[in-house]
Amino acid sequence: MELYIDTANLEEIQQAHDLGVLDGVTTNPSLIAKEGVDYGKRLEEICRVVEGPVSAEVIAVDYEGMVREGRQRASIAPNIVVKLPCTAAGLKACKSFADEGIKTNMTLCFQPLQAWLVAKAGAFLVSPFIGRIDDVGQDGMDLIHQIRSIYDQYGYNTKLLAASIRHPKHMLDCLLAGADVATVPFSVIAQLLKHPLTDIGLEKFLVDYRKAFGG
Ligand code: E4P
Question: Which residue's CA lies nearest to atom 12 of ligand 1?
Fold first, then answer.
């Protein structure tokens, strides 16, 4: 499973990149707003750090606006993936971009039928939002399983990108469910290596060694 970081914070992207296991980046309008920076400029900066896919979301909600904005974002760097919502206009724009050879990430996916349609339209990535589904009392992982099963059964090439991941258990469930990619905040990436027994074990190794050999 590929690992993307879900942030527009350059420092976090650099830190995750330095771990050597980062495959890409996802951004969205809320994440850019949090940074308070120019979207285009920040995308340029991110693409100088990360070679893998960098998702850039459109602000437009109409088809023409999405196509115009998406083309402009795609011209920033060859690894930009245009992020579009799973709406009728987004689906149309997804098909147009697929015909032009521009990659798309279809976001705000909350049900398997959206994932099916965007796969038919030639999406590169689909982003089901697990955490936000959990937030309303349903099980976000059910959606991952359903999309996996539909894509495998019909041989769609769209990559299943699990999004809105809130904790390490989501990550493990995504790995077991066969998600192609997971995008996560830096805080979750940091949690993935944490285990109290690792810390306790390491401390004991060092104490034992020092007792025997000093230092
Ligand atoms: C993914 O592309 C989205 O930007 C993100 O995962 C949304 O996560 P949230 O529900 O925690 O805001």
Answer: 164
CB 83 within 8 Å of CB 55: yes
Bridge pairing between strands 125-128 and 159-162? parallel
Q: Which residues pair with 126 in a beta bridge?
A: 106, 160
Nearest CA to ligand 1 atom 6: 164
What is the distance between the alpha carbons of residues 82 and 105, in angstroms, rounded to a whole number?
6
71 CB within 6 A, ligand 1: no
pLDDT digits (tens, 9 = 90+) for 110-123: 999 999 999 999 99
Helix runs in the chain, H state only: 10-18, 29-35, 39-49, 63-74, 88-100, 112-120, 130-135, 140-154, 168-177, 186-192, 196-213
Q: What's this model's pTM, rounded to 2 decimal places?
A: 0.96
Residue 83 annotated among the catalytic residues of the structure: yes
| Per-residue pLDDT tens over the stretch 16-39 | 999 999 999 999 999 999 999 999
How, if at all, do strands 125-128 and 24-26 pair?
unpaired
Q: List domains and CATH numbers for the chain.
A: 2-213 (3.20.20.70)
Site to probe by mutation for ligand 1, drawn from 4, 28, 126, 187 as the one with most ligand atoms within 8 Å of Cβ, is 28
Positions of the chain with pLDDT under 70 = none
